[in-house]
Amino acid sequence: MRLPILALLLLLCTCALAQNTDRKIVLHNPNSVNPLFVVDGIVYEEGSLNEIDPNNIEAISVLKDAAATVAYGPAGDNGVVVIVTKNGNYTRPDYTLTPDEIPADIFNRYAELNFGDGKEVVYLLNGKPQHLKKLSKLDASTIASIRVYEGADKALRLRQKGKDVVVVVTLK
Length: 172
What we know:
With 172 residues, the chain is α+β, with helices and mostly antiparallel strands. The protein contains 5 helices and 9 strands; from the N terminus they run αβββαββαββαβαβ.
């Protein structure tokens, strides 16, 4: 008799928690240095994590030390929290360039060739918008990867409304 009552109480508590709309993701960090958050392959700025429904989280993994820095460059120096959601918002790039495939003057070539062919292009350097001129001054040996996403639907999923092409540059 106690087991069905306990199960019923547990079910009621779970339903009450599921209806709570005031949920927030809170980071308790004694060092007060925040890690980099990556949700479905996209770097998230501080504060926007509360937009994620905790019930929609498929998996969370934590990268520390060298693994974080190798994967996300200097932005990962304080660690990386990788969140994968259930609804599959992860946007796959149309193509990716690895360090071996990146020519030294890649961004000068982008400028010369009018990359995007008249489309609205946004360049993100470690998750933050940058002008192509600034990127052309980068040493190509410091780049871990360049991922290109084409199409307004992919740009919207990458939080770049009104753009047609998103070029994501990640430093080593």
